[in-house]
Amino acid sequence: MRVTGIIAEYNPFHNGHAYHLREARRLTKAHYLLVVMGGNFMQRGEPAIVDKFARTEMALRGGADLVAELPTPFATGSAEYFAEGAVELLDQSGVVDTLCFGSESGDLGLVQRAAEVLIEEPEAYRAVLKAELKAGNSFPTAREHALASILAAEDLPEGFLSSPNNILAVEYVKALLKRGSRIKPCTVRRIGNYHGEGLFPDGGFASASAIRRFLLEGAFREGSFKEESVPFREPFVSPLSSQLPETSLRLLTDGRRLVSLEDFSLPLHYRLLAASDPLEFTAFLDVSPDLSRRIFRLRHEFSGYEAFLDRLKTRQYTRTRIARALLHILLGIRNTDIALPSQFRILGFRREAAPLLRRLKEESRLPVVSRPSRGASSDQEAFFSSVYHLGEAYHEYREKLVIVP
């Protein structure tokens, strides 16, 4: 049995993701594709547009065989934390042979070399990194310049570490190398406009962010938002039909709640106002002393989640970094909450993948659970899901496993 691991968010699952799954199966000759997916909150510090169970169904009907949940502290962490948590789950599963990920470069050798440099951090690399940070550049920019200085002879493409999937690809390989994992890396080159702004009616791959923007802007225009449950009308749905598999299109436009950052403006504002010390926020993941003081100082200017993100942004702190910090404050994710995953939680599987599930239960070095029982990690995830579903009658422990034919 050959099993290939995939690490994903599927926010939402679109045609580019379906292509990646097909290519992963073809390149690795996999019998099964096991996906580790972020739950209700994403690595960019945002909520998923629809919940984890809807996205699990999208993935299973789009080519995945089994979907497991990446714990939220990792799913919302930096690229390094995100990768370490996901690779830990795949490695501890005991069944995964290959990890197949997308990358803008498609050059596995270059990804591996970059990962080695970032693990070793030679003196020349550290010197450039220090100089770049001293010049006021953000850490991602400083790291990219330092890496380019080391790999100059290897013709590192400009913007290599500015491309989100290249960043994650390097972090996945780093995590595999640091663990001494037997899992082999494999990459699929991204095609199409994965991170562009618009939709392409000719069938080219639009980005997940462009699809989310189109949906959320349309939700308010069409009257399908949190307070109501109104399916989208056909003229609005039509442009999406070339970008989304049928299941994704149905689950995104059938009138269910579409979630955005603004849904959490009031609870976040309350959290910020409740603080009594400028350094209080440093207890939370991704919040430095300087950022904590800035948040504390500007909290009375809060007029909305997105607007506050823009207000906090500086040359030193990227918008994504700040978004993660605010999300961790909202959810109460502290620096001490980054512990290795303690269970392998299954969100759903295809009936035809029952042999994979049986083998997983036999080989996994972590407890395999399909419905969480009360305990520290399960209760924490239940709380995060309750925050995601604020204002709804929702109970994490009553949610059923997603099983598709």
Explain this structure to me?
The protein has 405 residues and is an alpha/beta fold. It has three domains: 3-106 and 341-404, Rossmann fold (3-Layer(aba) Sandwich); 208-261, no CATH class; 263-332. It has 17 helices and eight strands. It has helices spanning 15-28, 52-61, 72-75, 79-93, 108-120, 123-134, 139-150, 164-179, 208-222, 234-237, 246-253, 265-273, 289-298, 305-312, 319-331, 354-363, 376-388, and strands spanning 3-8, 32-38, 66-70, 98-103, 184-189, 344-350, 368-369, 402-404. Strands 1, 2, 3, 4, 5, 6, 7 and 8 form an eight-stranded mixed β-sheet that branches. Helix 2 (52-61) links the parallel strand 2 (32-38) and strand 3 (66-70). Helix 4 (79-93) crosses helix 8, helix 5 (108-120) packs across helix 8 and helix 6 (123-134) runs antiparallel to helix 7 (139-150). The protein is globular, with a radius of gyration of 21 Å. 45% of the residues are buried.
